[in-house]
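Sample log: Anti-sigma factor antagonist.
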Amino acid sequence: MELDMEKVGQTLIIRYKGEIDMSVSGNIKDAIDREMDKERTKNLIINFKHVEFIDSSGLGMLLGRYKFVTIRSGKVAVTGANEVVHRLLDLSGLYSLMKPYKNERLALRALGEEVLA
């Protein structure tokens, strides 16, 4: 599992490479929850730039992370989705919960984080 995490202010940025399916969804969920608890972050940005596909367990994991974040009064944003992932997020209704942004910088600004030049 290749998962990169970066904290910017009160926001955790997640970058995963590969497919988000049943074989990795639980591990990704645990890693995100653990890191958000450890770093005491409230917002989450998920960068899908290197994600080729998401199955139903991956969509469920994303919905669960949305609930986890909103309990903390935070927000979830997404960036970098390819055409396939974008379509899945749109058809599943997740875009009504997690607003898509063109890049991490715009997502950070929308979440109220100060972004350096």
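Observation: The mean pLDDT is 95.
Observation: The beta strands are 2-8, 11-20, 43-47, 51-54, 76-79, 99-101.
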